[in-house]
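#data-curation
PF: Archiving a pair of folding outputs for the training set. Convention for this channel: one message per protein, sequence first, structure tokens after, nothing in between. First:
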Amino acid sequence: MPESPNYTTVLDSDSRRAPVRVAFVTRRTSPHVKATDDPFVMTHPETLLRVAIATEVLMILLSVVSLVFNAPLEGMADPIQTPNPAKAPWYFLGLQELLHYFPPIVGGVLIPTLVVIALIVIPYFNINIEAGGLWTKNRARRLRVLTISVIVLTIGLSILEVWAILAPTLFVAALMYWTAGTPPDSGGRLRRWLTSKPLPFWIMTWFLIEAIVLTAIGTLFRGPGWSLVWPWGGSL
């Protein structure tokens, strides 16, 4: 404050705009008493320039790789001789694995449709980005819900013999139980970090692990007749 401030009386709703004045806030205005200036980054040129640079670097890397290494292409397609096994591109092998375990209507239509609908709908929810850890509130009730969900999934996947999905599910559930009894300020660094994560983190982690496992099995461990084989040859 200056030693001899000159105060004047004005009508205003922003205290930062009139720092040395006495402002009378009317009923129909919202007083802006405490606020901070949030950092802004303009889309142009900052963001667009970074995207352009990243795109050019990626194009250069792909050009160098294509000049140095030959693409792993097979021979000309022959409709008379179908390859065994007939595999989809690597990014569809997880879906092809689902078709192996579930009926076509479930693995090829229902599950992908639910995933696409979730990707469309979830952004419209009012999600709290700064959500607290999963076990910070209602720990006992959430443990019961987790236990019931794990039991139901274990029984259902065991009956269908979908071990490739059951194993990651039990792994993620074990991590969740491991963090359930840990206070936020105790345990090792990894345990404290996992304890602070909300439910969406665990759901996304489970989804990514499932996708990686199914894709790896379809890429490395599927042989003739869609049987399980070792990556270096020989049946499992």
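PF: Second:
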Amino acid sequence: MNIGIIIGRIGDIDGVALETEKWIKILKKLGHTIYILSGNFKRSVVRTRNEHVWRSLSFFSPECEWEQNRAFFFPEFEQKELLDHLDDTSNEIAFQIFKWVIKNKIGVILTENSTSLPCHLSMGIGIKKAAQNLSIPFVTHNHDFYWERGDRYKSPHKKIKEIVENTFPLILPNVRHAVINSYSRDVYKKKFGFEPMVVPNVMDFNKPFAVKDKYNSDLLSSLGLDKKDIPIFQITRIVRRKGIEVAIDMVHKLQDKRVKLIITGSAADDARKGYYKELLIRIKEKKLDKQVLFGHRSILTDRGKGWRGKKIYSLSDAYANAVACTYFSTYEGFGNAFIECVLAKRPIFVNNYEPVYWPDIGSKGFKTVMLEDNILTDKALEDIERIMHNKKEQKEIGEYNFKIGKENFSLEVLEEKLEKLFKF
């Protein structure tokens, strides 16, 4: 079967794009041919002739930015211009989808978050118009929703509110839905009266990951650590919900100068730099300048060369050199960094983040040091300290968690799910 994927951007490192590539890998394995319609290709994902760029679908297109400003950020009293624009632009997008479907003889369309989150209004409306007029099934892969984003998608205008509520997600007779956690499944049941399929985010447990080798053997020394230090990694972006301040407090309370926290995220992730500055102040106040380090200049997604030929290490290299990882998030739609740590066979210190961790991940039986409400209890600190100094326990935890991870969050699990989802 020819499957067409509609996505705002692909080939990038954001969660939606990365999970989409895993779906593509499995769908191809199941014998399907993949075509992609996207606003932006960071790199080629399938054969170039199967990739079609339509710039209006990009989140950074003038159309999208103007719509977001007029609908949500800087709404004006008069909305006719915006409503006319949304109608015209969505009609053009729907027309492009029709042509794309006919040209490539597409039998089913998969939308990747483009019909769940209203971060691109005309794309969502255009897809809905196409779905209403095409006699083919649609599958929506929904990662997050407007009701999870606080005031981000609230508008003072009734018509915009109606568009958001009636378009995102795409509720039509010819549409099947997949969500990434059981919380979203339960919300669906309450709001729409049916249950979508839960398809968790997954990792490739058959591919080598976090392996020490000659290339990454000098990663720690390049960051200024010596052999006696205990490297704990925070391998996430620097955004407030990641709870990085708790990891800093953990280092402070352990009172061990050998413990070094390496934060891989960049300040660029924090839109207004307020949270990043708070972290810097916290580090200074607790006199942890030599124990909390930022590795964003040396650690990126993949290996390579940076400014003036500076050696760049991958996330896999970071995990390979970690004794353990911190993941004190307060909210996640899923939590890929947790599964990455499991894949890396490293112990993890985690907060019971809402609304997903315990129902969808923690209850599977992983061995962790788990906080409630990010409170570092004496018992938690005692467990953390013991694990950091016990290599045998680190190995046992890593192997045990890897086994559970493979049973629940592997590509094999994804294959089983997609085989059912795309059976028409």
